[in-house]
Amino acid sequence: MKPRPCGCKGCRTCLICEKFYGAENLKLSLKLDKNKGYVYCPFCNKAWPGWEIDAYKQHPNHSGKPINYPGIYIKPDFITASEEEELIKCIDQVPWDISQSGRRKQNFGPKTNFKKKKIVPGNFEGFPEFSKFLQDRFKSIDLLRDYQVIEQCSLEYDPSKGASIDPHIDDCWIWGERIVTVNCLSDSVLTMTIFKGETKKYNLYCADEYYPVVQQDGSIDLEFIDKDKTMLEICKPNEEIDAIIRIPLIRRSIIVMYGESRYHWEHCILREDITSRRVCIAYREFTPPYLTNGLHHEIGNEITTRAKKFWDHRSKYKNKDEVIDT
After folding, report:
1. What would the pLDDT profile of 34-46 be if each residue is shown by its tens digit?
2. Most buried among 66, 67, 114, 128, using CB within 10 Å?
3. pTM for this entry
4. Which among 216, 284, 271, 222 has a CA at the least distance from the CA of 72?
5. What are phi and psi of 117, to 5 degrees?
């Protein structure tokens, strides 16, 4: 299926292709019952009844009966306003590629084929030097102290294009336990809905082949990894939750998704929750088979070596019309 001129394909649409390329009837219709909404509070780590995301700001004076929602870590003010300004300035000096559903992207990482489960380094040479301070700062968070970035992706959400991202789980064959995102320019919302599909989707069954590093309480013990249960088993919700969880993506914050929320819930960003330009930087790590002593450690080590390099974007992109190698 060929993409439309705006970059969208199939049921993934934006305001441009809906207006100019006849895609209005193709767009995915999400039927979400807002009465089932719970807003996650990053200060008490519980989800409280409601839909509007500003409800978390009522902390500690929440109302209603909360539910536990494990597998989310949020640190507000991960970067400063001046750091954000310089970061966005540098990001915009790198060419953007059009993506689906009204987004633009800059992708730095190996070439992956999720259907065939094949990975090659391709033209991957590491990451822009201007973003190194973010990865260095990961070490200040216990949950990320051993985190080795393999893919870094800048994503732009523009409300004038109706930008969004459909419900999904990040691939489980190659991308590991912790999904990390740094949020810039505006607040938004990550909407979580429980996944009830087959484990072949998203290569989710692969998570049954390895064990979690992050414990259920969010702690990490690299000396002890519980091998009594696999990733999917230990992260499975204790009971079926009939709820929609709304996670605040706070400007200049960092969010880490792991465990139950990573493997048993789909996440999306609704068009209605993009009210001004948002840029995020998303990070992914390898699954255990691509780490030292893993079945595919040779290709994993080659890519990891490249992932420890940083380069000057001004030298690489002297001509802003140049296309990024991905």
Report:
1. 999 999 999 999 9
2. 128
3. 0.92
4. 216
5. 55, 55
